[in-house]
Amino acid sequence: MNRKTELENNLNDVKKKIATAAKHDVTLIVVTKSFPVSDVEILRELGVMDFGENRDAEGAEKSQIVPATWHFQGQIQSNKLKSITQWANVIHSLDDLRHFELIEKYTTHALSIFLQVSLDGAHHRGGAKIKDLYSLAEAIEKSSEHTLSGIMAVPPLSMQTHTAYAQLQQIHQDFMKEFPGASGLSAGMSGDYEMAISYGATHVRVGSSILGSRSPQR
Ligand SMILES: *Cc1c(COP(=O)(O)O)cnc(C)c1O
């Protein structure tokens, strides 16, 4: 089977499962990290508009070649932020006020921003503590340039996925009482996007179910 047919079949399969799981609008972000730009070009031809990357260098390169909505969902390093703010349209992983200050300093265009929350309060997979979400959100709301889109999380390895997503849904609902515009919930990857949707995810980030498995170190 050629690559286009393979990607098309996988994409259609994922889209069908999303449609079955969702009673609300869900944005599918295809995570192309570690895959070549030729795959991004094929997916763009197949109608994909949203791509996600975890690394600045890869995102910078691919976004120059393929115009689309580019999402950054990796852990943020300060020294990469200047570049990330240039190519990304959406950042899913803001968890530190200092990073937002740098974003404001480097701004070239408006960004949609999701705040990443850590569900176990630890920082292994990124994310702010629940109580720190509110001051971050206030800083974004004060900026005239950028939009607070919602909350993002990656379930901790130590937690049952169901428990993690139920907790995330509650955190998001509480958060929206203060920030009603932040209606996005970025949650769900290849292994659990249908479950995440059942807990209210509006943005799913799916890589390997569409592109195949990545080499472990990447
Ligand atoms: C890699 C990654 C994804 C996609 O993971 P798959 O399991 O390949 O679908 C989604 N979100 C984040 C934060 C990631 O790092």
UniProtKB/TrEMBL annotation:
InterPro entries: Ala_racemase_N, PLP-binding_barrel, PyrdxlP_homeostasis. The keyword Kinase does not apply. This is Unannotated protein. PANTHER family: PROLINE SYNTHETASE CO-TRANSCRIBED BACTERIAL HOMOLOG PROTEIN, PYRIDOXAL PHOSPHATE HOMEOSTASIS PROTEIN. It holds the Pfam family Ala_racemase_N. Keywords: Pyridoxal phosphate. Residues 7-213 form the Alanine racemase N-terminal domain. It comes from freshwater metagenome. One of its GO terms (molecular function) is pyridoxal phosphate binding.
